[in-house]
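Morning!

This is the sequence you dropped in the shared folder:
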Amino acid sequence: MSSSSSSVAIAIESAGPAVCAAMSAAALYTLLPPALALGPRWVLPVIMAITLCVLLVLRARRQYAVAHYLGHASTAIMTGFIAFSLVLLVCGIVKGSLPAIIMLRSSGVLWLMNVVVFALWYWRLDAGGPMARARRGNHDTGCFLFPQMMLRQSDRGAWNPHFIDYLFVAFNTSTAFSPTDTAILSRWAKVLVMLQSIISLGLVALVISRGINII
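The structure's back. Tokens below.
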């Protein structure tokens, strides 16, 4: 197997967790009440499932450039659904029109989806995306400075970040409101991290304040 084929195989293999995470987040969307969903709640899972099938066909035909942009489009669609529901949730909490159980469940769903969608953006955009990173074979530059990148070459070998590494960054950003062990280097990544922290902090603050009012 050639070096290029090996890189492609690695990139496809590392995409598995990202696909599972995206489908899980889309399935979570069905747990939102109809009043907070953009259209029927089954629309997002169906869109993501169709997109996944098309991506598999494109990869089988080695049309990786088209698959790359389609992946960006699918993540943008999920982002739009989350943003729409998030606005409706905030309006409902401010107006006091949501029952406590609905508010808590919806906030939890959107918080989890927020983690996944930002992890997908980090994974897709860092250093040209997963395919470009796999082709280089050794990740030594990018928008995120992972701890492994600071090890000596002999200690880390040919290391590349996978989706789980970006999911870890996104999870830390939503819980600690900072990336903890990973430094953010580029401006676009700093903007996304700040935006993710604002959304997470807003959800937590609104839920806590509403809970206090209910008590």
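Headline: Residues 3-214 form one domain.

More detail when I'm at my desk.
O.
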